[in-house]
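I had to read the description of the data format several times before I understood it. The format is easy to grasp once an entry is in front of the reader. For illustration, here is how one protein appears when written out as sequence plus structure tokens:
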Amino acid sequence: MDFFAYFCIMKCKINLSDCLTFPPGIPRWLTAVLAFLLVLLTYPAFEPDFGVGLDSSYVWGLNYLFDNDYPTLTSLSHPYGPFAWLRLPVVGCGHYAFFLVFFSLAKFAFAWMVLEMSRRRQQPLLLALAALVPACLFANVEVLVVADVALLVASAIEQKSLWRFLLAAALSLFALSIKISIGTSSCSILFVGWLVIAFYHKDLKFTISTAASVPLMAFAVGLAVWHTFPAMWSACVGMLHLVGGYTEAVLMPEHRGWALVLFPLSIVAMALTLRGRWARCLFLLLLIPLFSFWKYGVTREDFYHFRQFLMFAVCFIVMVALAQERFRWQPWLFGFAAYILLTVNLSALNTSEVPVMTAGPKNLVTCVINGRTLADSSQAYIDKSLSSRKLDGRLCEMIGNATVDCYPWEHVYVAANHLRWQPHRSIELASGNSLWLNRQSAMNFGRQPRAVAFVLLHRVNYSGEDGLLSLDGRYLLNDEPAIIDSMLCNYSVADSGGWYGLLLRHGEGRYSADSGIVATADIQWNEWVPVPPHPASTVLRADLFSRTSFAGWLKGTLYKPDIYYVDYRMPNGDIFTYRYSRTTAENGLWLGPMLGSYAALAAFFEGRAEAPAPTAIRFRTASMNGSEAPSRLQKPRLTIWFRKALTLMQLTPPTD
């Protein structure tokens, strides 16, 4: 009896062991089947995300231009590229089916390559499947592309395969046309992977071959996407300018500081406990993208951006832990601790609604078999959203078939009223952090023959409160000074009585561009600086140059920079406060009449400066209140240049 019991127990142990580990000699088609089942099990529900507002507006705009005006799309400089619909599709558009194919292939490739890696490392089968479920559940296109590139490069290094590296290079460079952050993260993997190849293999021919393949692939992919070399070169220059100023978009979220400090410590502990050089290699490949997602997640306040970082962190932990030589529990423990810390911090962020993630095979059925029903329901949602941006028939008749642009960002007016759209280069406030991009976008409102005929200068706040506020509490006239000044020089008010804002018509404006330094000064933070006396017909801007200390640079790099405020003191003693970014301040902060409504802005376009101008200006950071000492993260001295920007012209009245 005891012998029989012992035999049964040993038999169960053997069967359980077989289930937990990959059986020897398992064919690749079986791991492909398992990967396919994982894709089905975790297939997300795609719902219409088209609406009104900043984000939804450029979702529509980028999809619209891809279908209707691809040359204009390739001339834009935007965080999203010409193939942005692979990240932000509109349900029912002509290329939505291609998005589904791309997403499904990227997800299948991720699951299959991770399973293949686990099989080669002799990782437990059930552990690999269980870990891949949340990874596949959380991963979106952005995460999947970066993960696929890392897995391809790691495989190329391990097997010394040039074609795998070429495939990773092609995917990385194409990712730049989807979203710049995806492409830069993927290209960093290529660079680190090439360094690992040079150090590990010490094969000069293979090292040179992999290095030479990247520029050749970049040229081929660039021509395929942008069609001409000048367009490709202009796009690359625009990307560099965008990347240089993208981190200036900063909010003050209610992060749990202790959780954000313990998270990188958990990642370091995970790295120290990894077994096997290929696990450490994959860790190195993914380290820069992990920091990139971290930087993107902590600089914004809302739930969505930090959740994006959490998605990548889950895939990072799963991939690195499964890349070990055989099972080791310590990296899993520290990885799980890192995930818990991010989840704890996620619960602290301000969000009015936490989205519920639903997944399953029925979603694929809905997208493929019931695609027409999904498209119809999406169109009904879109029509409802557009109904709130319908213009009066009189305005549409006035515009007619002439070109129109919307400023600062809500291009859904074009879709709602079937207008002929001629967008400026950045199509949203992406150029505010780059003087070069700001000037490029301003060309759409210049004097050249191809200047846009009408500008819909729409309201930002539709709740009934008036005011010229922009994104994150900034002043509309400060965000993109070259664009604002160009509008004032070349446009007049065609209609100012609408709820939507102002309609501007191209022609002879009331102002001319001016230049010249009125005064310069070295000032301190939190110090009131008098505005130099100047004629009422002259509009001044203040170019402010500030520098951070080493501690400020370190904080801005690893976490995020300070938030900056500018205070305007009016003749009656009132103080107006707005946010600004360091880069936009260098391009020129508005010192003209403090226009507080669209009616006042319309009067200013007509040459009537009815609003008073500030008498003094002050600069401070979020860490300062009132007369407190300046932040140690900033250099104590600032340089300010008061310069002329515009001059009111005395137009000759029309003769009978």
About this structure: The two ends are 120 Å apart (CA to CA). Residues 139 and 311 are 6 Å apart (CA to CA). The mean pLDDT is 84. Residues 96-120 form the longest helix (25 residues).
